[in-house]
Prior knowledge:
Blueprint: E1 3-6, H1 13-20, E2 24-27, H2 33-39, E3 45-48, H3 55-59, E4 66-69, H4 79-84, E5 88-91, H5 97-112, H6 115-123, E6 141-145, H7 170-181, E7 186-190, H8 196-201, E8 205-206, H9 209-215, E9 218-221, H10 235-240, E10 246-249, H11 258-266, E11 272-275, E12 294-295, H12 304-324, H13 334-347, H14 361-367, H15 375-386, H16 399-413
Parallel strand pairs: 1-2, 1-3, 3-4, 4-5, 6-7, 6-9, 7-8, 9-10, 10-11, 11-12
Amino acid sequence: MNKVLIPTKLSDVAANTLKTAGYEVIQDADTPLEKQVAAHPDAVALIVRSEKVTPEIMDALPSLKLVVRAGAGYDNIDIVYARKKNVDVMNTPGANSNAVAEEVMAMILAYYRHIVQADATTREGLWEKKKYMGSELTKKTVGIIGLGNIGRNNKMFYIPMAFMLVVTLTSLVRNLVKRLQGFEPILLGYDHFLARQRALNIGVTPTSIEDIFSQCDIITLHVPGGPSTHHMVNAELIGKMKDGAVLINCSRYGVVDEEALAAAKAAGKNIGYLTDVHPKDAPGEKPSAPIADLILPHLGANTREANTKAAKRAAEQMIAYFSDGDTSCVVNGMRMAAEFVVRVRFMGSGLLPRGSSAVSPSICMNLRLSAVHDWALTLAFTFLHATSSSSWLAADTPITMIESTSLWLVERSSSRSW
Length: 418
C-alpha cells in the first residue's frame, strides 16, 4: 500500500479520496515535516502547500516518487534536486486562480474607496467622510504583467518558467480579465513569450512593459518568482508610473525592488502599493510594511473553495500518476524541458519552424510519446532538429542524451545561467 504524507492544513477531501483509492494517508499539519519523514521513511509521495521540500527531506525518503504542490507556485520545492533523485514534482494549475483574481479585485476596491481605514475610524466614533474621497475603478487603464494562468483561465501545459514564461498563471489572468471587464477598463498586457493574438483573444491589448508602467492607472503582477524575475519592477519602471497609479503584487516577493519603491515614495512620488507576498509566510516584521498602502498575509489562495479544489486535484493527479502513469502536470520532467525549448526558441521568436510537419519516427520512439499532450514535446525536438542552430539534438539522439538535456534545461530554468 502506497503511503502518502500530507504535512499541511488541507481540505480532508485529499486524504479521503486517496484512502478510498487504497492509499495509506498520514495527514498532520502540526508536526514539523522533518519529524514526519523521520517517522515515515517509507512514504512514496508528499502533498504540500508552503512547506519546503529540501534535498534533506528527499534524502530522508528513499522511496519517494512524487511531490504534489497543492497550488500553482512551487518555489518551495527543489525541483532540480528532485529531478536528480528521479522524483517527479507536480502542481495543481488553476486550482486557486479564481481566488487570487478575486483578491486582486478586492484589494483594488478597498484601496480606491479607503475601506480598511474608513471602517477603523468609524468604529472609533469618528466621522471622516471628507477625508476618504475615493476613486472609481470604472474606465481605468489596467496593466497585467504576465498573461499566464491567473490572468487568462484557459488550459495550457504547465512547466517551470524563466524569462516570464507564465504558463501556470493562465486561468488566473482570464478570471481577472472577466471580473475587470464589468468596470469597462482599458486592458493592456505584457508577457514576453505570449503571442499577440492570444492576448487579443482574451480582451487584452499587448504592449511593452514600459508602456504599461507609463500609461496604466493600475498595474497588477502575475509572474513567477525566482532569479529571472527578481527586481523585474525596478527604479526605472517605477519612475515611469503615473501620479496616483497603483502597483499590486500578488505574485512573489522580490519581483518588486521595494528599496527603489521606497526611494520613489520618499522623493514625493504619489503611487500606491498593495501586496500580499513576503519573504516568509510566517509571523514577524514585514519589510513591505513601511511602504505598502495595503498589506495582507498571503491570502490569495486562502479560500475554502480554492483549498478544496487544490486538495481534490492533488489527490486525483496522484492517483492518475501511480495508476495510469499520467505525468501531464509534472513540472520538472522531459515534457517540461521540451516545452521550455519551444517557448524560448519558437513562441518567443514568432517564427514558424521549418519542417515542423516531418516528425521523425525515431523521435517519437525515443521520447516515448504517450498522449496528445506531448504535442509540445514533438514540436520542440522537431523544431530543434529542423534548424541548424541546435545540432546537439538530432533525430536519433538517444534517450539518455535527451534526459540529460532535460535536466540541463530544468537547472537553467531555476537560475540566470541560460
